[in-house]
């Protein structure tokens, strides 16, 4: 398979059953993407496949053949954080931080589809990403800030 | 301090550069996979692992017999709550029978996680199913199947405590016309005569509440990597744990490997909530197998293993009786608990309910209290600490009962509470539970809450909806709680049967360049100690938080500590940091006096500078003092060089944060759906170091408490099969299921430590479940609903409405549909008010 991850092209022969998340973590050593549930409920493994967010724990690596993937480790530009990363930091939208990479990727994907979401739309759009620490309020605020809605 | 500094932890976490245990890959590392029993109770009649060895990539496979010599101590339990407590041996791999679904029968080690998992299928195993006991009341019946045959009983312990003659109060005043007996009730100060006319109107609330089992669900599953450290003739264990120091001791006790040959590292840890306040068989297995095979071993559970084999929280049946006067003054409280241990005792299992026992009287002062707790073995996953650990259970029971009292007396629930609050105090005050609450001002918190929420306005809105027969009714639920935090005074903990001290240690060193290293014995996993401890140190040393680096979680790099749980870290560990900094300043002052050729008493320390009183130009910065202290060439004679101080702080008392919450719930009476519209909370955790971190802790705690009230609950089949075995089946609330929170605080300093801080990690989880449930019952009380158990899922709410309206046909449909044993408990648990 050939895949471009965070701008770098990789070629590997992999077992057909290898999950994309394990390919990223254990073959490419891109450990910013995590496994939380194995059932695509929690979203800790969320990455962008092209422009769209996917749960990499329930997708085979080979399904990404020929595609472009972006993980949380590929969104900063020239060392400058993506506005979503800054917004999560400034709004205390993370505690343990384990869900954060997936949450950030899902939020980035949401804003691409809906650049001006209401609070309710943000909450609905993030329903596939669980956070056990924050109660979500500060995550919603972070997404609002990143969307330019912050007061 | 007191500033909302964005966290120092965040940069690594938002960029994907955190060090999670599962990131670790080492040369030769093997993956450990566990064969778990699919039966809740079964004898293993045949076991052959040789087939697994033929599978590709498999290096070794073991049974319990193969490894029995490797764990002389089994999996230790550190809590002994009564002398008669039954503590069964827990082998990391069973050798006779499996006692819950998930008990470990054999293990495989292979070169990758997929191959290890595959090989489990090639293990031959036959089971002979045995009798299963899944609910506590049946477990205690004569002739019940025994979880541990050798104990001859399913009872783990019976704990009792209390003050005053509670039994007389209840057993003699049940009959409201028994005037003579009622007159024997404790005197009620300032509320009139305890004569027969008064006593005649005494009321007793008698209810049963169910604390359903919960799945803690840290988003990072457990992970452990153990390897031999060739440089040091010992072992290194990286683990996703809250308690690297406790793990070091427990791993040593379990395996016989000397404590000083074990180094435990908790790297970045993805949430714990109590579930990682434990030392698990998988950690023991990783260590002994790394030792036996001489190669690194990794264990990483998946979510279904996490739900089967990581501890569960709660699991109590609570029978509570509360006696009060007709004016709503509480006279006494009698509590009987059944506490579900599960199949084995984990690190603190029996201590969870016992450590919460003294908290049942809550924020109310009265004279008579008794509690009896029976710990009960069942063929279910072991229980242990889950956020709050004993205190949410206590707060729930008393707060539900006080609301029932208000309904019974047709009084406002705020008013009943106010009648029973302690007068504000700022010195330790004796409680019916036998504790010394440190300081409290419930009146201030309650005043602020009703103002913040516009309580009167909400009641008017509720009245309108009632008058309009609105299908969506409004419910207002209070919870006024306190919790026991800052674990804790070592002597008091020993009295609770908790092994080990409750102190905490810190090492603070100002380096030659003036930068500061703080090494702490606390072990954060989301709480932000790297930031808060830096703020504490910066404040004491006159430097900026950016000048401070906090080191934690590695037993080889920090002074031996007691880790992070029980809202203890700030009130014990943060204080150790503060006091160590004071020692540094004291020593620096002596050196500064020497450098300035001034008397020490004439020096003032402010803004990081020592200056001579009255002549501020004569000064030296603490950084320059540090430089001098390191060079050692020009310091007072006989003084040790360097600025490097240790502190071990053992607090004189616990801390008791408190607060007042109001949950505003909308309940659709046609569908049974209940949701939190607004949540107001006024919490008092003493002075605040970092308000954004404190509010964040409250948000997360409230979310988990609301989750218990509305959404979550473990379901087992009658055969002991875990039905909520994955996130598909167990409802963790997502962003759409939770509200925004309206928070405020009052500040009542604790006399238990020099900063007056109390702790906040569990406050939300303790305060919120009764507020939510009280609000739902409040919404539905005009329809006759007086009781409901958690979680208040739509079908349960709808059924309660139908029951109250006399539509018997609908009763129990929901529970029948679930096929849940919880159903029976719930049916029996219907409210019974006398």
Would you kindly provide a written description of the structure presented here, covering whatever features stand out?
- The complex is a heterodimer of chains A (151) and B (834).
- Chain A has two domains: 2-74, Beta-grasp domain (Ubiquitin-like (UB roll)); 83-146, Orthogonal Bundle (DNA polymerase, domain 1).
- Helix content of chain A is 31%, strand content 13%.
- Chain A has helices at residues 20-27, 83-90, 100-113, 119-125, 137-146; strands spanning 2-5, 8-11, 46-49, 52-55, 68-70.
- A five-stranded mixed beta sheet of chain A has the order 2-1-5-3-4, covered by helices on one side.
- Chain A is globular and about 45 Å long.
- Chain B has 834 residues and is α+β, with helices and mostly antiparallel strands.
- Chain B folds into three domains: 10-130 and 222-300, Alpha-Beta Complex (Aldehyde Oxidoreductase, domain 3); 163-213 and 313-430 and 439-485 and 654-833, 2-Layer Sandwich (Aldehyde Oxidoreductase, domain 4), CATH 3.30.365; 503-649, 2-Layer Sandwich (Aldehyde Oxidoreductase, domain 4), CATH 3.30.365.
- Chain B has 25 helices and 29 strands.
- In chain B, the strands form seven sheets. Chain B has a seven-stranded mixed beta sheet.
- Chain B starts with 9 loop residues before the first helix and ends with a strand.
- The model of chain B is unreliable at 174-201 and 817-834 (pLDDT under 50).
């Amino acid at each position: 398979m050939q895949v471009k991850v965070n701008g770098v092209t990789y070629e590997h022969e992999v077992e057909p059953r290898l999950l994309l998340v394990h390919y990223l973590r254990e073959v490419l050593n891109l450990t910013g993407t995590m496994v939380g549930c194995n059932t695509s409920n929690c979203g800790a493994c969320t990455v962008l496949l092209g422009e769209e967010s996917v749960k990499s724990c329930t997708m085979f690596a080979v399904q990404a053949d020929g595609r472009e993937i972006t993980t949380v480790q590929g969104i900063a530009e020239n060392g400058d954080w993506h506005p979503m990363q800054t917004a999560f930091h400034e709004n205390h939208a993370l505690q343990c931080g384990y869900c954060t990479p997936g949450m950030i990727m899902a939020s980035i994907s949401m804003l691409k589809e809906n650049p001006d979401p209401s609070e309710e739309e943000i909450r609905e759009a993030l329903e596939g990403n669980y956070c056990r620490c924050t109660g979500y309020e500060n995550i919603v605020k972070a997404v609002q800030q990143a969307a330019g809605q912050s007061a | 301090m007191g500033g909302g500094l964005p966290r120092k932890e965040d940069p690594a976490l938002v960029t994907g550069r955190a060090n999670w245990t599962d990131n670790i890959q080492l040369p030769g590392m093997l993956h450990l996979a566990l064969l778990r029993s699919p039966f809740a109770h079964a004898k293993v009649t045949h076991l052959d692992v040789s087939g697994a060895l033929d599978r590709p990539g498999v290096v070794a496979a073991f049974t319990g017999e193969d490894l029995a010599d490797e764990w002389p101590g089994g999996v230790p339990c550190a809590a002994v709550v009564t002398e008669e407590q039954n503590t069964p041996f827990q082998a990391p791999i069973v050798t006779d029978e499996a006692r819950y679904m998930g008990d470990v029968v054999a293990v495989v080690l292979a070169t990758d996680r997929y191959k290890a998992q595959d090989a489990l299928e090639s293990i031959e195993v036959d089971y002979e199913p045995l009798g299963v006991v899944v609910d506590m009341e049946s477990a205690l019946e004569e002739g019940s199947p025994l979880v541990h045959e050798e104990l001859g009983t399913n009872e783990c312990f019976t704990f009792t405590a209390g003050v005053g003659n509670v039994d007389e109060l209840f057993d003699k005043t049940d009959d409201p016309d028994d005037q003579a007996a009622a007159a024997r009730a404790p005197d009620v100060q300032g509320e009139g005569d305890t004569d027969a006319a008064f006593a005649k109107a005494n009321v007793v609330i008698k209810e049963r509440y169910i604390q359903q089992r919960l799945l803690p669900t840290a988003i990072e599953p457990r992970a452990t990597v153990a390897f031999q450290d060739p440089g040091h003739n010992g072992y290194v264990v990286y683990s996703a744990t809250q308690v690297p120091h406790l793990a070091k001791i427990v791993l040593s006790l379990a395996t016989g490997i000397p404590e000083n040959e074990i180094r435990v590292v908790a790297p970045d840890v993805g949430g714990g909530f109590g579930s990682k306040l434990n030392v698990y068989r998988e950690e023991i297995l990783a260590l002994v197998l790394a030792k036996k095979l001489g190669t690194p071993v990794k264990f990483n559970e998946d979510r279904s293993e996490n739900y089967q084999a990581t501890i569960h929280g709660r699991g109590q049946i609570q029978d509570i009786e509360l006696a009060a006067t007709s004016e709503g003054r509480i006279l006494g409280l009698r509590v009987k608990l059944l506490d579900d241990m599960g199949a084995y005792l984990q690190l603190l299992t029996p201590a969870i309910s016992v450590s919460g026992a003294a908290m049942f009287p809550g924020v109310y002062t009265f004279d008579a209290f008794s509690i009896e707790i029976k710990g009960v073995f069942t063929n279910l996953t072991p229980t242990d600490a889950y956020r709050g650990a004993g205190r949410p259970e206590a707060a729930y029971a008393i707060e539900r009962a006080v609301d029932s009292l208000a309904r019974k007396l047709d009084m406002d629930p705020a008013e009943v509470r106010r009648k029973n609050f302690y007068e504000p105090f700022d010195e330790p005050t004796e409680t019916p539970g036998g504790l010394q609450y440190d300081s409290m001002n419930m009146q201030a918190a309650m005043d602020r809450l009703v103002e913040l929420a516009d309580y009167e306005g909400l009641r008017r809105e509720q009245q309108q909806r009632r008058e309009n027969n609105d299908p969506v009714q409004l419910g207002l639920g209070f919870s006024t709680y306190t919790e026991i935090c800052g674990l804790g005074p070592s002597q008091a903990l020993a009295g609770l049967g908790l092994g080990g001290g409750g102190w905490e240690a810190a090492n603070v060193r100002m380096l030659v360049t003036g930068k500061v290293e703080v090494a702490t014995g606390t072990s954060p996993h989301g709480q932000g100690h790297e930031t808060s401890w830096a703020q504490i140190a910066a404040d004491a040393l006159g430097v900026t938080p950016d000048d401070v680096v906090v080191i934690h979680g590695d037993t080889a790099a920090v002074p031996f500590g007691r880790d992070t749980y029980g809202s203890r870290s700030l009130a014990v560990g943060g204080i150790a940091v503060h006091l160590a900094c004071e020692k540094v300043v004291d020593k620096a002052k002596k050196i500064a006096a020497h450098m300035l050729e001034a008397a020490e008493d004439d020096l003032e320390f402010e803004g990081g500078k020592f200056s001579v009183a009255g002549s501020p130009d004569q000064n030296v910065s603490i950084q320059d003092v540090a430089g001098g202290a390191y060079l050692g060439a020009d310091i007072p004679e006989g003084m040790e060089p360097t600025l490097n101080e240790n502190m071990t702080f053992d607090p004189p008392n616990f801390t008791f944060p408190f607060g007042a919450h109001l949950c505003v719930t909308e309940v659709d009476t046609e569908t049974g759906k209940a949701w939190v519209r607004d949540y107001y909370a006024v919490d008092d955790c003493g002075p605040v170091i970092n308000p954004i971190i404190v509010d964040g802790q409250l948000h997360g705690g409230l979310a988990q408490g609301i989750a218990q009230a509305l959404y979550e609950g473990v379901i087992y089949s009658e055969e002991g099969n875990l039905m909520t075995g994955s996130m598909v089946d167990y409802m963790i609330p997502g962003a759409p299921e939770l509200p925004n929170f309206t928070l405020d605080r009052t500040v009542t300093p604790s006399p238990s430590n020099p900063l007056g801080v109390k702790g906040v990690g569990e406050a939300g989880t303790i305060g919120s479940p009764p507020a939510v449930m009280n609000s739902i019952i409040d919404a539905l009380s005009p329809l006759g609903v007086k009781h409901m158990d958690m979680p208040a899922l739509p079908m349960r709410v709808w059924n309660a409405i139908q029951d109250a309206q006399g539509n018997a046909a609908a009763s129990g449909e929901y529970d029948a549909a679930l096929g849940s044993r919880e159903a029976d408990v719930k049916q029996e648990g219907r409210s019974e008010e006398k």
